[in-house]
Amino acid sequence: MKTIAILALAAALLEARCIQVTSSQIVAGDLAGAIPQFQTLDPQTPIGFAPVPGVQRILSPHELALAARRYQISLEAGTPLPSVCVERGVRALSRDELLVAMQAALGIKGARVEILEFGGQPAPPGHLEFQRATLPRPRADGSTSDVVWKGRLVYDGQRSVTVWARVRVTAEERIQVAARSIAAGTVIEAAQVQEIQTRQFPFPESFPSREQVVGKLARRSIAAFQRFTWDALAESKDVRAGETVRVRVVEGLATLTLNAVAQSSGNKGDMVQVHNPSSGKNFRAQVEDKGKVIVNSSEDAP
Predict the structure, then answer these.
(1) What are phi and psi of 96, to 5 degrees?
(2) Which CATH number fits the domain that encloses residue 293?
(3) 59, 70, 170, 227: which could form a disulfide with 84 (CB 3.0–4.6 Å)?
(4) Cα-flanking dihedrals φ and ψ of residue 99, to 5°?
(5) How many separate domains does the chain show?
(6) Is residue 239 part of a domain?
(7) Element (H, E) at 172
């Protein structure tokens, strides 16, 4: 009776303790401590499939007996096999390994990644993958804001689990700011643009360059030292309402030029309304170039 009790206690302990395996296969080496008969096999001999991470698999005595028969292992009559619990070994991800994977994905010299928070779920052994293309850009008015960057941990060759981290990514960049306040509707001049160096999200194409700012129309008021953003800029018209334009009146071989005031806006090829302050007459003209219009008939002449 004492021997039976000891065997029963041993079987219960084996059932309570889950054996951790490190791959998608349960091999003989994993079970050798629980099933001494499997010690005669090559440790890499496959016994069955391992469960996915977070799930336990119970190998029944019947399953173990079938595995023993498959590999011609003799079992003594009357010797019971225990049930064996198997689960995938997992570990907690570290901040350092996340940083290494993120820096590799960025590939930007001098970029700084600050991890503010990350998912702490246990994961199986594998390698981390992040992609630069999946790194969200901060809001246009907050280029140092934190964002959630999602990646994955690849294991068993092709399986993966999602990992995430809340990060702040910055690098030394040269950006364009307003040298002084700019009113809405103003065509931005070179003297109104100042280049400064700062730390910001390291994708400069998210913001316009100096060449892309000068000559644009301010959609709204831009405060001094405020960074220029794409949504604050609009294409400037070749002719804008209220500005003085050069009018070229063509009648046959004769050409007359004069100054007038545009009443409407347009680009090259568009028809606009123009006012001659000398005669008080309004007329239509075609935009010829920046600040220039043409009238091709004396009937439409000012």
Answers:
(1) -65, -45
(2) 2.30.30.760
(3) 59
(4) -60, -45
(5) 4
(6) no
(7) strand 159-178
Beta carbons within 8 Å of 116's beta carbon, 6+ residues apart: 146, 165, 166, 167, 168
| Judgement on whether residues 131 and 69 belong to the same structural domain of the protein | no
For residue 243, what is the DSSP state? S
Amino acid at 184: A
Token pair of 165 as six digits? 């981290």
Distance of CA 155 to the CA centre of its chain: 23
**Are residues 179 and 108 part of one domain?**
no
- pTM for the predicted model, two decimal places: 0.59
CA 171 to chain centre: 16
Question: Which structural domain, as residue segments, surrounds residue 184?
Answer: 172-234
For residue 1 the two structure tokens come to 């009776």
Q: How far is CA 125 from CA 63, 100, 213, in A?
A: 27, 16, 50
* Domain edge (last residue) among 143, 169, 195: 169
Output the tens digit of pLDDT for each of the chain's 302 residues: 343 333 343 444 444 589 999 888 899 999 999 999 899 999 999 999 999 888 899 999 999 999 999 999 888 776 788 999 999 888 889 999 999 999 999 988 889 999 999 987 788 888 999 999 999 988 755 577 899 999 999 988 888 889 999 999 998 888 899 999 999 988 899 999 999 988 888 876 678 899 999 989 999 999 999 989 888 998 888 898 889 999 999 988 888 899 999 999 898 999 999 999 989 999 999 999 989 999 986 556 56
Rg, Å, the chain Cα set: 38
* Boundary (domain end) residue, out of 169, 192, 223: 169
Q: Is the dihedral of CA 199, 200, 206, 212 positive or negative?
A: negative
For 260-273, the three-class secondary structure string (H helix, E strand, C coil) is EEECCCECCCCEEE
Can you tell me the distance from the alpha carbon of 4 to that of 106, in angstroms, rounded to the nearest whole number? 63
